[in-house]
Specification:
Beta-Lactamase; Helix Hairpins; Heat Shock Protein 90; five-stranded mixed β-sheet; five-stranded parallel β-sheet; 11 helices; 18 strands
């Protein structure tokens, strides 16, 4: 009150109020002094302003910032881990050709674990929106109808699955496999929230979004997928962390904490949004909005690799700052008829650029850039074939490093077969161009 007496306004903490119809709202209260004709403070007046939408928008923005930071961390971890996986997978394959008996069985288990780890990094990249997707126009209704039988078998006899697709088709641009992944993750989570049985409903409909302070997506038409259960629900604290990677309330042997993080990444990559409503004892409802096919963006994918050829003694320069990955690549190439050298063995000025059949370079190098290095070498030899390697997605590295669509990128972690296919495709495309020019 001292501030009021001194003539200052007071902004009280935001607090929950209740409207006449019983619905709660968040109010911001401002109190200011009332003066008499002599300027003395004799009373106080207050106003309340409904700031519910503003607060919701702030919370949503803060959550989006936090998820973006987690996505950058997850993408960086996945990128580095892909290098390690390439080493594990390929050296396990090398040894498999040389051992038998129990040792071969042990190696098979190592290889299987590496494949599972590769799947986990793929999920992390999905959460980080760094995994490329091949999309097509899909009727969301049809996807729900076709998934109904599989989901019904998955959730068990004590759970009733109810599907309510919209009457009209709901075309969206999406990857069918990842759309099925969304449905499976959400329905499995609903099942786990109802250990004593219950009902899971899957519904679709069309909604129109308008502009507004709390809007998370541009205005327009969206297909909405709603998955609702009458299970145990969750607290606000759990709800706020639900999409964070590796966050889970399940026992260690029942979940990795990547399911909903993956869903979050898939939906965001498709230009949509996901929201959740839940409270302890009141069940959980997930609502996913996906842009209609008319407004969704097209995703670009690269061509499939050609059949693998033989090296025939052609020289390939390998530029990779992870020595273990570099050694691995050189070994695979040399074992398949290529000659291989690394830039570390030469200074850039000393490289006999005309003797190189292909430059095979990582995109992100310590203290330098693969595309910049390629540009410097191509300044001396414009027709130098280039194949890049990267642990990030094709779309991301092309955008951030200015790599044109004609230059192929080999995704890590790769097997020996995938490496050789990429090299062969890069060399074959050059041969086709040269033939067309009559070289």
């Amino acid at each position: 009150m001292a501030k009021l007496a001194a003539g200052e306004q007071i902004h009280l903490s935001e607090s929950v109020r209740v409207r006449k119809d019983g619905t709660p709202f968040l109010a911001a209260v401002t109190v200011w002094p009332v003066r008499d004709e002599n300027g003395a403070v004799v009373a106080a007046a207050a106003t309340e302003r409904d700031v519910t939408e503003e607060n919701t928008a702030r919370e949503r923005s803060a959550r989006a910032d936090r998820m973006e930071s987690l996505g950058q961390l997850a993408g960086g971890v996945a990128h580095d881990f892909n290098n390690l996986l390439a080493i594990i997978m390929n050296y396990a394959d090398f040894l498999t050709e040389e051992v038998t008996g129990d040792a071969a069985d042990d190696l098979a288990r190592i290889r299987n674990a590496a494949d599972r780890a590769k799947s986990l990094t793929s999920q992390l990249l999905l959460f980080a929106k760094r995994e490329p997707t091949q999309v097509e126009v899909i009727d969301l209704n049809q996807a729900v109808i076709e998934a109904d039988e599989l989901l019904g078998r998955t959730i068990g006899e004590n759970i009733r699955l109810v599907s309510r697709p919209a009457r009209e088709p709901l075309p969206v641009r999406a990857n069918r496999g990842r759309l099925d992944q969304i449905l499976l993750n959400l329905v499995i989570n609903a099942r786990d929230a109802m250990p004593d049985g219950g009902v899971v409903s899957v519904e679709t409909d069309l909604v129109e979004l308008d502009e507004g302070p709390s809007a998370t997506l541009p205005p327009g038409s969206y297909a909405r997928l709603t998955v609702c259960d009458n299970g145990c629900g969750m607290t606000a604290e759990v709800r706020d962390r639900l999409f964070e990677p590796f966050f889970t309330t399940k026992p260690a042997d029942r979940g990795t904490g990547l399911g909903l993080a993956t869903v979050y990444g898939i939906v965001g990559d498709a230009g949509g949004a996901i929201g959740v409503e839940s409270a302890p004892g009141d069940g959980t409802t997930f609502r996913i909005l996906l842009p209609s096919a008319a407004t969704a963006a097209h995703a670009k994918t690269g061509p499939a690799p050609d059949e693998i050829g033989h090296g025939d003694g052609r020289l390939i320069m390998v530029v990779e700052d992870d020595d273990f990955v570099s050694d691995l690549v050189v070994r695979v190439l040399q074992n398949n008829g290529y000659r291989a050298t690394t830039l570390g063995e030469h200074s850039l000025a000393d490289v006999d650029i005309h003797g190189i059949s292909l430059l095979l370079a990582d995109v992100v190098l310590r203290g330098r850039s693969g595309p910049v290095l390629a540009a410097r070498l191509r300044a001396r030899r414009p027709d130098l074939p280039v194949l890049f390697m990267s642990g990030y997605s094709d779309v991301e590295v092309r955008r951030e490093h200015g790599i044109d669509a004609a230059t192929p990128i080999l995704q890590k972690p790769f097997t020996a077969v995938e490496l050789l296919a990429g090299v062969d495709a890069a060399l074959s495309s050059v041969a086709v161009v040269q033939h067309a020019k009559g070289v």
